[in-house]
Specification:
The protein has 140 residues and is of the alpha/beta class. It has a domain at 61-133: Nucleotidyltransferase, domain 5 (2-Layer Sandwich). Helices cover 31% and strands 16% of the residues. It has a five-stranded mixed beta sheet, covered by helices on one side. Strand 2 and strand 3 (77-79) form a beta hairpin. The longest helix has 17 residues, at 17-33. The termini are far apart.
């Protein structure tokens, strides 16, 4: 005999709330204990150069220096900077009769990138294509 004819049978159910709580605790534990590696965003491999004979005769050299306060000097003579065109004229004066001097840019480590670009632009306006940079070796 079935005395529960009118009643529906209750289906067994699984309570998901404790399982979700446990998964959240595991997720938080993993987030806290994970170490993140700091990779640099930009890896640059700089070119290397070697000179066979550094004392070989080359064209006239013009040393152009710039410091962190954007003060320029051409061949160790301070030069007031009022624009790229004016700097190009100063380079012409320093070159004298030489048609293709080597422009050596000696920039302070804290000099702005723009000041170095100004020197390069002035050399381009003056018609000089030989540009190099002066560096120092790190002391050990």
């Amino acid at each position: 005999m079935n005395f529960q004819r009118g009643r529906s049978r209750e289906e067994p159910e699984i309570n998901l709330i404790p399982m979700i709580d446990i998964l959240l605790v595991i997720l938080i534990f993993l987030m806290v204990t994970t170490t993140y590696a700091n990779f640099s965003g930009l890896q640059i491999n700089l070119p290397q150069a070697g000179a066979d004979n550094p004392n070989a005769k080359i064209n006239k050299q013009i040393d152009v220096s710039v410091d962190a306060s954007q003060s320029y000097a051409i061949n160790e003579k301070p030069t007031l900077y009022s624009g790229v065109e004016q700097l190009a004229e100063e380079l012409h004066r320093a070159a004298g009769d030489d048609k293709e001097p080597v422009i050596i840019i000696n920039a302070d480590a804290k000099a702005s990138h723009q000041s170095v670009v100004n020197i390069m632009e002035a050399a381009r306006l003056a018609g000089y294509t030989s540009i190099t940079f002066k560096t120092e070796q790190r002391r050990k």
